[in-house]
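Researcher: Here's a chain I'd like modeled. Treat it as a single chain, no partners, no ligands.
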Amino acid sequence: MMLADDGHQVTVLERDPQPPPGPEQAWDSWARRGVNQFRLPHFLLARFRSVADAELPGLVDALAAAGAMRANPITRMPDDVTGGPWPGDDRFELVTARRPVVEAVVAGRAGATDGLTVRRGCPVGALRTDGGPGRSGRPVHVTGVVTEAGEAIAADLVIDCSGRRTGVPALLRAIGSAGPIEETHDSGFVYYGRHFRSDDGSLPRQVGPGLQAQGSVSTLTLPGDNGTWAVVVVTSGTDRALRALRRVDAWEQVVRAMPRIAHWLDGEPIDEVTTIANIEDVRRHYVPEGQPVATGIVPLADAWSCTNPSLGRGLSLGLAHAAALRSMLRQGALDEPGLLPGRWADATAASTGPYVDETLRFDGHRLAEIEAIIGGRSYEADDPVWSGYKSLVASGPATPELLRASLDVTMLFRTVGDVLADPDLGATVAGLENPGPVDGPDRSELLSIVGS
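Model: Modeled as a single isolated chain. Structure tokens:
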């Protein structure tokens, strides 16, 4: 939509054939087999709303009209915690909904955008090239795609936005490119989630942050649209004892044992326990050591880098990444296709790279912490960014300044590194005490609940 608004002719090739229904039918009737996380809990951070307001006018209002929740965490807290209204607090306003509802609204607007054609049921089978590598010593140059039905479609630029399991690296290798270097880390988390609905459109009271570390598990509480919400329990993939959380009875007993989120079960369940595992943190390098593996093609969002879903960053980072690409193309990058991959790598590193770096860092520490708790050990890490993150999340409401710094990190406006680099804030965060024990069940109580 951004590119079409700039006057480009854009064709989106979508593998799944079913057109989007109205937002009100999307949860019950829309099948998106190409998106394995389609019906899993999602959340749109304030960074998503900020980028959408700037780049896609009307989208946020359309989401709200479809029942998406609009809220500002600052205005929902008492003045003695927030210090009252501050200039700039409007940046924390967010709009969020279940994934099918969000996608139905976005797809509906895309279908009505001049210059944008969406072709559903049209998977890509190959990439077109102007003759392969070796010509004048330059890399493969992609000139379009060939659909699985054999139709050739020419393009000045191919954008890979096919997600974390993209097949484009293999398609590049098939036309003679070495393909991107893929840096893969098994995030090691397993997610057990359910959605609920209230009978009056209300949402549960939020007690503490949406993501909470509870010993050897973490919990997510995510408000949605039209009086719906999601609750997720996150475990380590190696924690075989807690695989019983696939069962509704075990899952409910564990959540009810957690005082700060037990009331989130007081609604009508609208699905069973949904599980997702084997999620890998992946980053793909298309310009290794300064040399592009191909020109005429760029990766976008999860096709470039995908991270642990429990921080809720994926869709928001993806939209910010898209805005960065549109901005680069506005500067004439298409006129110099040989330089475009390097420029995009630099723009990516500046716009979304720092957030991906910190997410990968947090994942490693959290998994190590969980393993230590399972083994009955304490976990100490000599990493000020990890310590700062934990302290900000746990102690954010201690002062109005810390509260806003914590929200800036949560909502993707600043990294923890940015906060620590601030002379005053950095010293304050460094002086915070480490978070105390959680108020939920300890490890032995968890095992007793699930019957292990």
